[in-house]
């Protein structure tokens, strides 16, 4: 192969490798046992000649790595993730390295995990499972693991982009929940869907579902029974959920986060969980991954899973393929397949709505 492409991790499937090999690339996959590679580890992988890198969200892609990649002749970097808060896009631009991410292929998979956590929290599935396995079940009781009925309640979505909208549809259609959402962009297709579904239910003699676009995030926090967070992590969304916003939520609300950990002030969340035993959370992401803030692991009203929202076979193979196409496209002189510079910043009041 004429071009040297490095992947910092083995990735699922073979399609991504074949695509690169067929197009004159030599693919080198890092086989280090440790889960999180340091900047030094990656510098060693880049070496003296490297045309492109496929990296992971656990890695810190800043000035040091992009300048090294540029010196090695590299033109392209792709995160194998839709989120790219681990990538300093300005530094990449400065060194002439194009950046790609992997949106689209993980939309439904991620929304399905958010929906799963929502139901698991509402129906206390994990607590009940632990109870069974501990041999504590000694017969049916009227009060045993009573949770929340989602039907007819209100689901609140913060950030109604691709994933947030897919999640909203699942909860509205699957559980007949009413929708309230907050985003600087109007989610027109989502609104149309809920309207049409509401009309369908009404025509069948059922209670119709409704939607509302909130004028502030607080409105969602105040009114929703179940809230799922789907913003991009940036300066404007860091600790979006903090002590004050938690206090705004209903005492028996459910909060789900499959976006990025730092969107929630996790210390404040642990405190809130401790003081409000009926408040429940489903978390896929954490502020200091792979760690949890002290106390979180002991909270019965929290469900915690290790950042697996995009973890379906189809999606992970798709993410690897998209990442390979990103790098390949740039090496071959095309625009990068998926350029995160095109992702509009969430909650950036100055961002103009798309034409
Ligand atoms: C996973 O967290 C992703 O951003 O793709
Ligand atoms: C519960 O198992 C019921 O039959 O109501």
Automatic annotation (TrEMBL):
Q: Which family does it belong to?
A: Belongs to the D-isomer specific 2-hydroxyacid dehydrogenase family.
| Enzyme Commission code(s) on record | 1.1.1.29
Q: Does the keyword Oxidoreductase apply?
A: yes
Q: Where is the signal peptide?
A: none
Pathway listed for it is: Photosynthesis; photorespiration; 3-phospho-D-glycerate from glycine: step 3/4
Q: Name one Pfam family in it.
A: 2-Hacid_dh_C
* CDD domains, sorted: GDH
Q: Which residues form the D-isomer specific 2-hydroxyacid dehydrogenase catalytic domain?
A: 22-333
- Give yes or no: UniProt keyword Oxidoreductase: yes
Single GO biological process annotation from the record: oxidative photosynthetic carbon pathway
Would you say which domain of life the source belongs to? Eukaryota
Keywords per UniProt = Glycolate pathway, NAD, Oxidoreductase, Peroxisome, Photorespiration
Location in the cell reads: Peroxisome
User: Which EC class is this protein assigned?
Assistant: oxidoreductase
InterPro entries, per the entry: D-isomer_2-hydroxyacid_DH (IPR050223), D-isomer_2_OHA_DH_cat_dom (IPR006139), D-isomer_DH_CS1 (IPR029752), D-isomer_DH_NAD-bd (IPR006140), NAD(P)-bd_dom_sf (IPR036291)
Chain ranges of the D-isomer specific 2-hydroxyacid dehydrogenase NAD-binding domain: 117-309
Which GO molecular function annotations are given, in alphabetical order?
glyoxylate reductase (NADPH) activity; hydroxypyruvate reductase (NADH) activity; NAD binding
Its gene name is LOC116194158
Q: Which reaction does it catalyse?
A: (R)-glycerate + NAD(+) = 3-hydroxypyruvate + NADH + H(+)
Query: SUPFAM superfamilies, per this entry?
Result: Formate/glycerate dehydrogenase catalytic domain-like, NAD(P)-binding Rossmann-fold domains
Q: What Gene3D superfamilies has UniProt attached to this entry?
A: NAD(P)-binding Rossmann-like Domain
Which protein, by its recorded name, is this? glycerate dehydrogenase
Task: State any GO CC term.
Answer: cytosol
